């Protein structure tokens, strides 16, 4: 796993609006001890004490967009994780932060055992603690595999500080046990009000449990123990606790937990095509108050986020350079993974208009293209008072904005410098709000959303049945996502004529498209055992040779070409190239601009896990390094 993890650098991002407003006795209570963590000085005497302590856990989560330098990302500056060129480091923020953050849930759980009152009075707070304990162990599992399990508040002389790593199987077992308790104690989303937006529910715990089970089941199915090490000279070993579930058992339970969430009726997909048109999905990810979109929708209209960090313009801005950076830019591969309106991929659809014209590939496409990728020469609002012409003036034509600015989007194909927005510009998680400057964005960040639950159900079902899934199961899961994206449903009959298309491949395609930029891609290709094949291909962008780009001029600057071939050192693709282990993804033809050649990319099995920080091994020699590091 690799991500920007803007969360853990700043450890104080708040998750719940109710938590933002600390008034009266709650503020007085919190002022009694250090603000960054709970201590033994905290007296857990009343249900309010437990609730206040549990509310603190949310503040440690925030914005975690990721996937940069993956096979789907046109951003390769800075973080080059996808190239497989990582090195061992003395410290690691994921290790340090998650172990630090485990202390507070463990304190609450320990104090709950001593609570003299009715346990039902503190059940929700305790359930929250068990959820977060599972959450932080899962973050460590994704990054390092087996790690030391910590289920008590550690002191300087605690044995756990000097013990060996637990195996990944023991960590998963602990995570599942904690989530079972969280599910028992947390309330249903159906009982929570708007004022509780961002707080955990039993459906959130079930969704997270389904995620963990699918992740580990597929890891064990496709990767096995290849990254475990022997536990004697390297790695965490392969010890399994008694009663550890089989792959089939985990897949079955993942399917059932996701089905429970579906049947709860507590959540629904964002679908505002009627009010917002073919960009409606863009507004899900920049939703603030009524000024953030043409339909005047607010966060209260979003029923898709199951677990989220709640930001607020007045109380808690993101303070991150999100909109200016625009990190979620697609590659040639991702652009070709997006479907055509008829539900078929570009290489098979008669509706696909090809690449000859600059705007051809945007025609008749999935609304996730028109929502998240700017169409050349189309007009778009900027943001703030004057950036790119200033923010949206809904109901006003661009020509009548009162600002002397040409709002048309022009692709940048003159230089690879800067590492972003080359060829394509992605706009997922960006704002066009007139009242928002850089770092003031205040839309919520989803940690779990309903679309992922639908994807889990479909994937677990197909994995359980050797890649077979019924049309009925598709209709209750993936086809809901495709419908709101303006794409025809996936059916067995639709793909039957094409030998290169499989159900499992199409489900994985949907996952890559739907969750792009939300920090899933690296973990997905690793748990499927295909990271080397997916990440080590040449990363390309627009087709330039043989297309309109070769001669087109910039309409904002007549006489200036849109594309400068001399500025790109790697040139263009010279032959047809496979881009995926799945034959159903369109190959890249000659003439595509190369952003990162295959020769730069060397992702191997050792990169499936990151190295244990060397300072930790120095302090505790019982920690064995991961294989290959």
UniProtKB/TrEMBL annotation:
Record SUPFAM superfamilies: TPR-like (SSF48452)
Residue span, RagB/SusD domain: 328-629
Family matches, as InterPro entries: SusD-like_N (IPR033985), SusD_RagB_dom (IPR012944), TPR-like_helical_dom_sf (IPR011990)
Subcellular location: Cell outer membrane
Pfam families: SusD-like_3, SusD_RagB
Membrane listed as a keyword: yes
Keyword annotations from UniProtKB, A to Z: Cell outer membrane, Membrane, Signal
Annotated ranges, domain SusD-like N-terminal: 92-214
Keyword presence, Nucleotide-binding: no
Disordered as annotated region, ranges: 226-245
Family: Belongs to the SusD family.
Protein name: RagB/SusD family nutrient uptake outer membrane protein
Native source organism of the sequence: Christiangramia antarctica
């Amino acid at each position: 796993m690799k991500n920007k993890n803007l969360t853990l650098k700043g450890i104080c991002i708040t998750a719940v609006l109710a938590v933002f407003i600390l008034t009266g006795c709650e503020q007085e209570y919190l002022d009694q001890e250090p603000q960054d963590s709970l201590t033994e000085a905290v007296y857990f005497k009343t249900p309010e004490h437990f609730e206040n302590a549990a509310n603190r856990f949310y503040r440690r989560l925030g914005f975690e967009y990721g996937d940069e330098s993956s096979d789907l990302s046109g951003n390769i500056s800075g973080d080059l994780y996808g190239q497989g060129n990582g090195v061992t480091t003395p410290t690691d923020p994921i290790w340090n932060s998650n172990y630090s953050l485990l202390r507070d849930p463990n304190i609450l759980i320990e104090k709950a055992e001593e609570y003299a009152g009715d346990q039902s009075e503190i059940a929700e707070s305790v359930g929250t603690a068990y959820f977060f304990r599972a959450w932080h162990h899962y973050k460590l599992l994704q990054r390092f595999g087996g790690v030391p399990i910590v289920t008590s508040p550690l002191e300087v002389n605690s044995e756990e500080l000097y013990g060996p790593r637990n195996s990944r199987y023991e960590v998963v077992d602990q995570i599942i046990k904690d989530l079972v308790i969280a599910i028992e104690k947390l309330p249903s989303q159906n009982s929570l009000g708007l004022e509780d937006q961002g707080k955990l529910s039993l459906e959130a715990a079930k969704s997270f449990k389904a995620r963990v089970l699918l992740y580990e089941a597929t890891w064990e199915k496709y990767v096995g123990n290849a990254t475990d090490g022997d536990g004697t000279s390297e790695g965490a070993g392969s010890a399994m606790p008694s009663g550890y579930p089989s792959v089939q058992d985990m897949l079955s339970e993942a399917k059932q937990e996701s089905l429970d969430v579906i049947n709860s009726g507590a959540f629904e997909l964002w679908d505002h095509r009627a009010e917002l048109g073919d960009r409606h999905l863009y507004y899900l990810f920049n939703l603030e108050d009524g000024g953030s979109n043409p339909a005047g929708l607010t966060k209260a209209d979003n029923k898709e986020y199951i677990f989220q960090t709640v930001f607020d313009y007045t109380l808690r801005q993101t303070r991150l350079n999100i909109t200016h950076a625009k990190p979620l830019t697609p590659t040639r591969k991702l652009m070709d993974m997006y479907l055509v309106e008829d539900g078929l991929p570009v290489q098979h659809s008669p509706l696909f208009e090809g690449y000859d014209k600059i705007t051809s590939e945007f025609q008749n496409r999935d609304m996730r293209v028109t929502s998240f990728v700017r169409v050349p020469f189309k007009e778009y609002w900027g943001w703030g008072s004057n950036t790119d012409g200033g923010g949206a003036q809904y109901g006003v034509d661009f020509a009548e904005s009162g600002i002397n600015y040409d709002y048309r989007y022009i692709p940048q194909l003159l230089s690879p410098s800067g590492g972003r927005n080359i060829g394509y510009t992605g706009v997922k998680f960006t704002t066009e709000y007139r009242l928002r400057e850089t770092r003031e964005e205040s839309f919520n960040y989803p940690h779990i959303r309903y679309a992922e639950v639908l994807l889990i159900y479909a994937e677990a079902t197909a994995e359980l049945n050797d890649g077979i899934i019924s049309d009925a199961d598709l209709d209750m899961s993936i086809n809901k996502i495709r419908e709101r994206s303006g794409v025809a449903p996936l059916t067995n009959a639709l793909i039957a004529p094409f030998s290169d298309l499989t159900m499992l491949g199409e489900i994985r395609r949907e996952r890559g498209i739907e969750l792009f930029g939300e920090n899933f891609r690296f973990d997905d290709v690793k748990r499927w055992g295909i990271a080397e094949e997916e990440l080590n291909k040449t990363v390309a962008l627009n087709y330039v040779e043989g297309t309109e780009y070769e001669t087109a001029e910039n309409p904002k600057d007549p006489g200036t070409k849109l594309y400068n071939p001399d500025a790109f050192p790697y040139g263009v693709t010279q032959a047809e190239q496979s881009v995926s282990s799945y034959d159903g993804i369109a190959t890249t033809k000659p003439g595509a601009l190369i952003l990162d050649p295959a020769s730069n990319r060397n992702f191997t099995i050792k990169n499936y896990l990151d190295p244990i920080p060397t300072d930790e091994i120095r302090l505790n020699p019982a920690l064995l390094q991961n294989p290959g590091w």
